[in-house]
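Internal ticket - ligand job 413, (2R)-2,3-dihydroxypropyl phosphate:
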Amino acid sequence: GEAKQWFSARGQVRAGLDKTDPLFGQYKEANVILLQLEAFQSFVIGQRIGGQEVTPNINKLMATSLYFDHFYHQTAQGRTSDADLAANASLQPMPSGSVFTRFADHSYDSMALTLKDYGYMANVFHAYDGGFWNRNIMYDTLGYDQFFSKKAFVIDEPLGWSLGDKSFFKQSVSIMKTQRQPFYSFMISLSSHHPYTLPAKVQTLDVGKFKGTMFGDYLEAVHYVDAAIGVLVDELKSAGLWNRSIFLFYGDHDNSIPDWQPFEDFLGRQLDEADRFRILKGVPLVVHLPDDAHAGTYSQAGGQLDVTPTVLHLLGIPSSGLTMIGTPLVTKQPLAGKRVVFRNGAFIDDRVIYMPAEDGLEEHSKCYASTDGRLLADSSACAAGVAEARKELEASDLVVGHDLVPAMHAKRE
Ligand code: GP9
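stdout (structure tokens):
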């Protein structure tokens, strides 16, 4: 009933964009290489410490890529697995637990399954135990041909929990090279995992006064991952895959550092409530198109649920009939009224940031102007969005919890 109506209305929004936007189908049959970065937040992008760039490789990549600087993670208790679900199935996480562990026997309209209908191979790469987050089971459900977990890799660069990202990326590309094209490859990095302590020889950034703190270790870890991204891009170029692929990466969730002082010291300014919310939720989305086109910084709001619809749009694959929440971000004109909804009912759009109160009382919730973060005395600017956000979460919960995707298809056919 209600969920069906909600998803079909959202499908119509995507269909409208597909029809009018010149980028729809611009990269038909390109390979898709999607990278999910562990605990990678956007506040480090483009920053320097002691004169040294924290993310020199990403900064360089920007010259030929699209960078979305108002892109947000939408994860909840399922952390890395929620980000994976959001980006690959365009659905919200559940209020508790992880969809990967609780509902791996339900059906989803995933990126892998959709692309396979269009002749793609689909593989997933993550150099850790295949059972973690119930991936072995969930990746079958999501429709991958193969899951290259830890046992598929030579541990020639032991780092943190497992294999270092540099070697992980190199080995993943050497597998991709042998695969039939077009393919979809999804990679999940790991080296920047909490608590971020990398061995001294891997710490190549002078973090000054942050040395020996978790925040300093985080900057070092992010700097290592940035170098690994440099390696990955070089490997993709020498494998001849770079200009035959849409390459995207995004951060999965925040770094769980609870104290705001180091953030303020690092950024050199005080952070108000709205700043903090944006920083906590802000993760990078970088999209490189095969022909280097449309490079630049894009400031419309977007979130992880938009990743698969964005890819399908560029490939020219219609998604109006798919049970997905997101909308394409790489378009000539940003979608008017775009809203990014978070699990607790918070949302961000181009006008406001809404945060529900911890005690659940509507009169304690807060509505900020998204332009300058000032608290709006009159919260009516948020009211319509609050109701819409609730509807999105309810529709998603019905689909995930009651396994409604098969019924949605039956209805459409
Ligand atoms: C491990 C990993 C980490 O396989 O992806 O998950 P997290 O602890 O960040 O949710």
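Auto-summary: Residues 38, 79-80, 128, 132, 188, 190, 193 surround (2R)-2,3-dihydroxypropyl phosphate (CB under 6 Å). The two ends are 16 Å apart (CA to CA).
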